[in-house]
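Q: Okay, next protein. This is tRNA threonylcarbamoyladenosine biosynthesis protein TsaE from Melghirimyces profundicolus. I've checked the sequence twice, so it should be correct. Can you predict the 3D structure?
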Amino acid sequence: MILMSRNTCTFETHNPEETRNLARHLAPRLRRGDVIALEGDLGAGKTTFTQGLAAGLGIEEPVDSPTFTLIKEYEGGRLPLYHMDVYRLNHPTEELGWDEYFYGDGVTLVEWADRIEPMLPGELIRIEVSRHQESDVRKIRIEPPAGETERICGGLGRLDNHETAGD
């Protein structure tokens, strides 16, 4: 199921593979310098989503949460993926070279991005993953930057095989 509005698109997935598949189809739409603010409660499916995104970028190495390392870099795909988990960050202004990632050559995905809101660039893709209680159903809401809804959401609900890197 997909719900589209002028500035957002919302999807419903029913299992981890559907969540990965949605992210895999999003990946070809991403460009160098895109920053994704990924939000969701513990267990909502953020890492599952990130695994699909990495696969869609052509990254073959295993992807897991960088909770204790803060940042993991994945190379070898169409674009590098900089995967951040800032849940354990003590203060949002800690200098970790944010700009090198946010304005670098790859796609940056930040889990728990609200914890470093002042450090985030103005243009970013906000994605919220929420899990329905007592089921595996996930609601995934994507809010692209102003003027980028068609690039990010346009046709994403079709999930055609020709849109997927590696299919």
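A: Here is a summary of the prediction. The domain at 2-161 is CATH 3.40.50.300 (Rossmann fold). Strands lie at 2-4, 9-13, 35-39, 71-74, 81-85, 107-111, 125-131, 138-143.
Q: Noted. On to the next one.
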